[in-house]
Design goal:
With 171 residues, the protein is an alpha+beta fold. The chain is built from 8 helices and 6 strands, in the order ααββββαααααβαβ. The protein has one domain. The chain is 24% helix and 13% strand. Strand 1 and strand 2 form a beta hairpin. The chain is globular. The protein binds iron/sulfur cluster (SF4) (2 copies).
Length: 171
């Protein structure tokens, strides 16, 4: 669960308004910053960059800490201690890492000067729209805990692997 955010994705006791349009990222409160995440879970998938053309494909295999139904991290507060490779997104490192995030990611979109997408809970008012729009990984991802490492390595090298979910494209 994201800190300070209810299961409905609404920050308790605070009217958010369209703060993301007026407040610079580095000046947002922790609650505002956290609420920018649409909880799609895409950043928790393994991805593969194709040799030669640099195209990036996201796979159906998710970090073992991802709850593939809720699309939330099961140990969010201490995630970096548990999964050392987990990439923490902060206002100060977004300039460096935004290109590593999915093109749909709200943090990346805001950094690139775009508005939040129509499926975003802060736009729709519902935490379900990210799932209804097919942006979240719900019903598509499988935990790496269920995939043998040898199979994972083999399948990720396979051309046209059935594990490839989608190519990263801009929206
Ligand atoms: S890709 Fe971005 S919006 Fe989606 S879960 Fe990750 S940080 Fe949140
Ligand atoms: S540890 Fe990081 S990559 Fe893994 S599920 Fe949690 S947020 Fe996602």
């Amino acid at each position: 669960m994201k800190p300070g955010v209810s299961s409905e994705g609404v920050v308790a006791g605070e009217t958010l308004g369209s703060f993301w349009e007026t407040i610079p990222l580095e000046q947002m409160t922790p609650d505002q910053w956290e609420s920018l995440c649409d909880r799609c879970g895409r950043c928790c998938l393994y991805k593969v960059e194709k040799a030669g053309d640099g195209r990036v494909f996201y796979t159906a295999v998710a970090c073992r800490l991802l709850d593939c139904e809720s699309c939330l991290c099961k140990d969010y507060e201490v995630r970096k201690n548990v999964i050392h490779r987990c990439l923490l997104i902060t206002p100060s490192n977004l300039e460096t890492i935004h290109g590593l995030l999915p093109a749909t990611c709200a943090y990346r979109r805001i950094f690139e000067g775009k508005n939040l997408a129509c499926w975003h809970p802060l736009i729709s008012g519902s935490p379900d729209t990210v799932h209804e729009a097919g942006i979240s990984v719900r019903s598509m991802a499988v935990s790496e805990a269920l995939v043998h490492p040898d199979d994972l390595e083999y399948l990720l090298k396979e051309e046209g692997s059935s594990l490839f979910l989608f190519e990263d494209k801009h929206y």
